[in-house]
Design brief:
The protein is mainly β. The chain has no helices and eleven strands. It is globular and about 40 Å long.
C-alpha cells in the first residue's frame, strides 16, 4: 500500500487548512488512518485517527479544532484543521494502521509528509 499526501501550506493563526492522503495498492476500507505531526525539535506525535467505519480519536491538543474523516470510495483520508495556532506548525504525516480495542495501532506505512506553517 502506498500513501500520497496533498494539501497543507502556510496559514495565519486562527485560519484553516486541509490535508488529504490518497492510498493505492490495497483495500483502504479495512484500514484505519492515523495523522501524526512532528515539529523540528519534537518527537512525532499522533494527533488524530479514523477507524475503518469512521470512528475518530484525537489528541487533547487538537480536540475540537481538527477533524479526521475518510471516503472509502475514493480510498482517501482527510484531516481538516481549523482555529490553527503557531504551535500547530509541523510536518504532518498520514499513517496506515488498524484499531484494536478502541486504540489506534500503527502498521508502519507512512505518507511523505506535508508542511503546515502557522504564522502571522
Amino acid at each position: 500500500v502506498q500513501l500520497v499526501q496533498s494539501g497543507g501550506g502556510s496559514v495565519q493563526p486562527g485560519g484553516s487548512v486541509g490535508l488529504s492522503c490518497s492510498t493505492s495498492g490495497g483495500d483502504f476500507s479495512i484500514y484505519a488512518m492515523g495523522w501524526y505531526r512532528q515539529a523540528p525539535t519534537d518527537q512525532r506525535e499522533l494527533v488524530a485517527a479514523v477507524s475503518p467505519n469512521g470512528t475518530t480519536t484525537y489528541a487533547d491538543s487538537v480536540k475540537g479544532r481538527f477533524t479526521a474523516s475518510r471516503d472509502n470510495a475514493k480510498s482517501t483520508a482527510y484531516l481538516h484543521m481549523s482555529s490553527l495556532k503557531p504551535e500547530d506548525t509541523a510536518v504532518y504525516y498520514c499513517h496506515l494502521g488498524t484499531f484494536f480495542r478502541g486504540n489506534y495501532m500503527p502498521l508502519g506505512i507512512w505518507g511523505q509528509g506535508t508542511q503546515v506553517t502557522v504564522s502571522p
